[in-house]
Design brief:
The structure is a single chain. This protein has two domains: 1-328, ANL, N-terminal domain (Rossmann fold, 3-Layer(aba) Sandwich); 332-427, ANL, C-terminal domain (GMP Synthetase, Chain A, domain 3), CATH 3.30.300. It has helices at residues 6-9, 13-34, 36-44, 105-121, 140-152, 164-174, 183-195, 200-203, 218-228, 341-349, 377-380, 383-401; strands spanning 85-91, 99-104, 129-132, 155-157, 178-181, 208-212, 231-238, 243-249, 256-258, 263-268, 282-288, 299-305, 307-308, 320-321, 326-327, 332-334, 337-339, 354-364, 367-374, 406-410, 425-427. It is globular, with a radius of gyration of 22 Å. The protein is built from twelve helices and 21 strands. The strands form five sheets. The chain has a nine-stranded mixed sheet, with helices on both faces. A four-stranded antiparallel sheet has the order 10-11-12-15. The protein has a four-stranded mixed sheet with strand order 20-19-18-21. Helix 4 packs across helix 5 (140-152), helix 7 (183-195) runs parallel beside helix 9 (218-228) and helix 9 (218-228) packs parallel to helix 10. It has 431 residues and is an alpha/beta fold. 42% of the residues are buried. The structure holds 5'-O-[hydroxy(phenylacetyl)phosphoryl]adenosine (DLL). 5'-O-[hydroxy(phenylacetyl)phosphoryl]adenosine binds at residues 91, 134, 140-141, 212-215, 234-239, 243-244, 301, 303, 324, 327.
């Protein structure tokens, strides 16, 4: 088993907790002194940094929500003067202004260190060639991964997303061994590789892919792994917490390790704010423990997951979380039933003949339409085959969600292609 920083990654549980507490206290003192908004929130909750004596005391502290990021925008939560800031990343808010996150030199270096740990734990090393097909720019996806890969000594191809033909040429010409890409775009690229008659096992050197930035199911992972003959590792993160690399799978692909020396994690009931029992599903709440420019305390990610408390076979002591089940704000309601897009994706990707792209269209609160592309050759065949396939999709979605959908089968290339985060749900409901 390879490590980037074996000591940090295998720290004994007790030592890890001590380090977390020490860093938590330091972070709390920092924001209390330097950020008027945090000081006011703490005062309102009648808590001072010195009241936090144990890690469990964290629940005395108020949560930070995305609304807090807009107080005294954009520098309101920053603890350093502007001349000490070296990078801005943003993440689109649902409405209006983007969330703005600032990094100091130390923060950038630290986020690269964490990515280096992530990459090495999947077996990546010098000599690997990473095609970074995430968007370069305000989005954290590409830059943070880029710096981390360079730290390991990996050759980075800063491809960015899109221009699929060029992506494939880059892979062929330069012998790309690893790719960083969103799952929806990976599905598309894989389909184009096939359409071009390229045999990925024979013609490409691709060994692994890092997929993240949007939820996807185990079925999608398997489908792309089988198509390309590679290993896919799940990479989770959010701009507010550095971007990619907050959670990352090791070689065992059995949950995502959260770097607990850098992030304090809690899982709470999103309605009550109370902690759930360890191992139960709830909303992930993260506190930065090692961030200088813009620490965040008990940040409500809105992402639903559960902690996997059992130790991992890889020897890392940092606990894992399960694949993100969805965001609480992605959930939609049809016929009074709560549905996550990922439940639909899971069904679709398990059905033979379903191609890479799908969309869920909502016109009313009583009905959902699933538009799904299927393999082209199915349209050349008998109509009975199409009818059977449609029935299978309807039945399986109904048993997964309890709602009978309308299903439209489409030829590949009908739905819009996503090169970054896919928009899977089109909600046309007006009230
Ligand atoms: O998507 C950071 C990132 C870039 C992660 C590249 C991984 C790879 P944001 O744009 O701020 O940052 O979006 C963060 O995306 O709260 C989750 O809801 C979702 N998300 C990110 N990674 C995963 C994943 C980046 N592996 C939001 N599985 C998060 C499921 C994910 N959802």
């Amino acid at each position: 088993m390879q490590f980037w920083n074996k000591e940090a990654e295998t720290l004994k549980k007790q030592k890890l907790r001590e380090l977390q507490l020490e860093r938590l206290k330091k972070t709390l003192r920092r924001v209390y002194q330097k950020v008027p908004h945090y000081r006011a929130k703490f005062q309102q909750a009648k808590v001072k940094p010195d009241d936090i004596k144990y890690l469990e005391d964290v629940n005395k502290l108020p949560f930070t929500t995305k609304e807090d990021l807009y107080v005294d925008y954009p520098f309101g939560l920053v603890t350093l003067p502007i001349e000490k800031l070296i990078r801005l990343h943003t993440s689109s808010g649902t409405t209006g202004k983007p969330k703005a996150i600032f990094f100091s030199k130390k923060d950038i270096n630290n986020s690269a260190e964490l990515i280096a740990r992530c990459l090495v734990m999947t077996g990546a090393k010098q000599g690997d060639i990473l095609q970074n097909s995430m968007t370069y720019g305000l989005f954290t996806g590409a830059f943070v991964m880029h710096y981390g890969a360079e730290k390991v000594g990996i050759l980075v191809i800063p491809a960015g997303p899109g221009n699929t033909e060029r992506q494939i040429n880059l892979m062929r010409d330069f012998g790309t061994t690893m790719i960083h890409i969103t799952p929806s775009y990976a599905l598309y690229v894989a389909s184009v590789i096939y359409d071009k008659g390229i045999d990925p096992r024979r013609d490409l050197k691709l060994k692994r892919a890092y997929l993240g930035a949007e939820p996807y199911s185990e079925e999608t992972r398997k489908k792309i792994e089988d198509m390309l003959g590679i290993d896919i590792y799940n990479c989770y993160g959010l701009t507010e917490m550095n971007g990619p690399g907050v959670g990352f799978e090791c070689k065992y692909k059995a949950g995502l390790h959260i770097w607990e020396d850098n992030f304090l994690m809690e899982v709470i009931n999103p309605d009550t704010g109370e902690p759930v029992k360890e191992g139960e599903i709830g909303e992930l709440v993260l506190t930065t423990l090692n961030r200088e420019a813009m620490p965040l305390i008990r940040y409500r990610t809105r992402d639903l997951t559960r902690i996997i408390p059992q130790p991992c076979k890889c020897g890392r002591t940092h606990r894992r979380i399960s694949r993100i089940l969805g965001r609480s704000d992605d959930m939609f309601i049809v016929k009074g039933v709560n549905i996550f897009p990922q439940q639909i994706e899971q069904v679709l990707m398990s059905i033979k003949g379903v191609a890479q792209n799908y969309q869920i269209v909502l016109e009313s609160y009583d009905e959902m339409t699933v538009k799904v592309e299927i393999d082209r050759e199915l349209f050349d065949g008998k109509i009975e085959r199409l009818i059977k396939m449609k029935e299978e999709i309807i039945d399986k979605i109904r048993s997964a969600t309890m709602v009978k959908p309308k299903v439209e089968l489409l030829e590949p290339g009908t739905l819009p292609i996503s090169e970054g985060k896919a928009k899977r749900v089109i909600d046309n409901r007006t009230i």
